[in-house]
Write a structure and sequence with these properties.
This protein has 512 residues and is mostly helical. The chain is 77% helix and 2% strand.
Length: 512
């Protein structure tokens, strides 16, 4: 018997589900990604300013005063990388807080703390204050990471989950564009930090109005609240009974099995998806994607770009923002696995091309000491646009389908009762690798050269292409319950099958 078309399903359910309530709820939570985009891009614009003691005109003397904080790139690498140490902590506690408080309350409580971290940076007169603020902001990033993509996946109708899953990438790109724009037009990195209060305020206000996840409410035993939440998200004219019953029945079967969260985390239903999907996230960090975000201005200085290194990131992130909006439509129609493999291959070629350009024009700049050696190379000025195009290509393909597919797979692959825990654990393991890749970037440049570093990044991404081809499932258009069942059916052993059968038998026995 063939599958029914979406139009047939909608007719059976009383019409199409409303898209706008799901979209607005996803955008509200994804303002957290805008805040994260600011945190991650801030080091790119602030580190060069800190290296040159960029200051302000004094309000009292009306004279230019140098900033008391002055660093080199190795100190700057601590500012960039300690963010990911905090991220490890946040990811590990994010799943627990999600289960206890729900994503909505986690974001509500996190917004004022995020504002405090930016105030610490803006008012700091010692480097340790900035480092402490980066650790705290990293913890909040971990909370957002463990809750944001899970919430967006759980509120989305199966036919819209691909589109809504790209919103986090859109909002992250928006935060990066905002940070680079302010970095170009604002001289002081302290003022840039104050301006970051804007996305924090938008996050804190918007999440007040979103409904709780129906999956979380059912896990908490609040079935009537879950029903109301689904009605808000799908619209009153849409018949939610099939979707609601699917979620409730899955929860009852799991309760009948009697397996605890810890037992589930130690079972194959967590371990196999972790190996298949979590490993993709960890490998990604050694391909230099987040390194580019953290050191973009310095990278353009080192690569010998003919475009102003402070202006080039604005161009890169503007293109990224446009493509992020297009990716919503692309993921709605494109199979995910081929899209991921195509984007990963394009990223590898772009990284290798940047390294090759640097190799052919090396010896012209030194971002480690913020100095430049003038060499008469006419071809360098003629092709000085190449580094910008390479970085645009990396960010473009990252946005179109690379990270969006990974984030969707992460939200889809784990059972409901451990989804936020699993997301946090994957995030923590990823953060360890992000810390290592970000902190070691100056040492890679010292040891391998700029060109060798980006050749290495391209090679790592090719490894990810092979691994992704072997490990990524295709879940497009399937409900979270069905994607979970499919992942489990691929990995469960006889004991798991027996547990499922016993759970179903117990459930049927209770209902009779």
């Amino acid at each position: 018997m063939g599958k029914s078309s979406p139009e047939t399903k909608y007719q059976q359910n009383g019409g199409k589900p409303k898209f706008v309530p799901q979209l607005l709820s996803a955008i509200a939570v994804s303002f957290g990604a805008t805040v994260v985009g600011g945190w991650m891009s801030f080091t790119s614009v602030a580190i060069p300013k800190m290296m040159t003691r960029a200051g302000n005109i004094s309000d009292t003397t009306n004279k230019y005063e140098e900033d008391p904080i002055h660093i080199d790139l190795h100190t700057g690498s601590w500012i960039a990388s300690l963010f990911f140490i905090g991220n490890i902590i946040g990811c590990l506690i994010g799943g627990f807080l999600n289960q206890k408080l729900g994503a909505k309350r986690v974001f509500l409580l996190s917004a004022p703390i995020a504002a405090i971290t930016w105030a610490m940076v803006a008012l700091s007169h010692a480097i340790w204050v900035i480092l402490l603020s980066r650790i705290i902001s990293g913890i909040l990033f971990g909370l957002f990471q463990a809750n944001g993509k899970v919430y967006n996946a759980e509120i989305a109708h199966p036919d819209m989950r691909g589109s809504l899953g790209t919103i986090i990438g859109n909002m992250f790109a928006l935060g990066s564009v905002f940070t680079y724009l302010t970095g170009y037009f604002v001289h002081s990195w302290r003022t840039i930090a104050w301006l970051q209060m804007i996305p924090v305020g938008l996050l804190g206000i918007s999440v007040i109005f979103i409904p709780d996840s129906p999956y979380w409410l059912i896990e908490r035993g609040r079935e009537q609240d879950a029903r109301r939440s689904l009605i808000i998200l799908r619209g009153s004219s849409y018949d939610i009974e099939e979707e609601f019953g699917e979620i409730v029945n899955k929860k009852r079967i799991k309760d009948a099995r009697g397996r605890s969260v810890l037992q589930t985390l130690c079972s194959r239903v967590f371990i196999i998806p972790f190996i298949r999907i979590g490993s993709l996230m960890m490998i990604t960090q050694w391909a230099g994607i987040n390194v580019i975000t953290s050191y973009m201005v310095n990278i353009f200085m080192e690569a010998g770009s003919s475009i102003d290194p402070s202006l080039a990131p604005i161009l890169v992130c503007t293109v990224q923002q446009i493509l992020a909006m297009l990716s919503t439509g692309i993921l709605r129609v494109s199979p995910r696995k081929p899209l991921f493999l195509f984007c990963a291959t394009a990223i590898a070629l772009s990284q290798a091309s940047l390294g090759t350009y640097s190799y052919l024009t090396q010896g012209t700049s030194d971002a480690m000491t913020n100095t430049t050696v003038i060499v008469d190379r006419p071809q360098e000025q003629e092709y000085g646009w190449v580094p910008v195009m390479c970085v645009i290509s990396v960010n473009a393909f990252r946005t179109i389908g690379f990270m969006a597919v990974i984030q969707l797979l992460l939200a889809e692959s784990f059972p409901t009762e451990i989804r936020s825990y699993a997301s946090g654990i994957c995030g923590a393991c990823t953060a360890i690798n992000m810390f290592g890749a970000t902190k070691l970037y100056p040492y890679f440049v010292d040891g391998l050269g700029f060109h060798g570093t980006f050749w290495m990044y391209g090679g790592v991404m090719l490894i990810e292409v092979v691994y992704g081809a072997l490990s990524i499932p295709e879940n497009k258009g399937q409900s979270l319950v069905k994607t979970e069942d499919k992942m489990i059916s691929n990995v469960k052993d006889k004991e798991d099958t027996k547990d499922d059968q016993e759970g179903l038998t117990n459930l049927l026995g209770r209902s009779s």
